[in-house]
Amino acid sequence: MFIFQTQEQGISSRCTRAKLSTSSWRCTKEESSDSAPIKFSTSKAASWSLANAANNQKQEIPWHQTLSVAISTGVFLIYFLYLREENDLDLELSRPLFERVPHLEESQLKIAIKYAQEHGKDTKELEERLVQLHEEKGTDTPNQ
What we know:
alpha+beta
């Protein structure tokens, strides 16, 4: 037997259907005598807490699951961090970002100089690095 209940505007409906029946539902409607809202402080929900829900859903974890996960993770980390040889990708990732992206350092220096000037900070080191960068590239010092 299948049962479902609905409640709309103080009218409660309870419908039932036999297991083998596909279309014959029997519904009864009842008018609720207490159509006032239910106070939270007096309901069962007021005494419910998240800890109660967690206690109700105890999971059976085998004792060896934690041990096997810890050993597997440890073996993977030992291999990945110590035993593995460096490859081309590792060498590429070890290069500084300014070497891999052209003109990035120059634009970052210009932004840093502008920020420092706006906030009244010293820009001497930043301007020296910008001049040094242009000398390495063989270009003229830009106007800021």
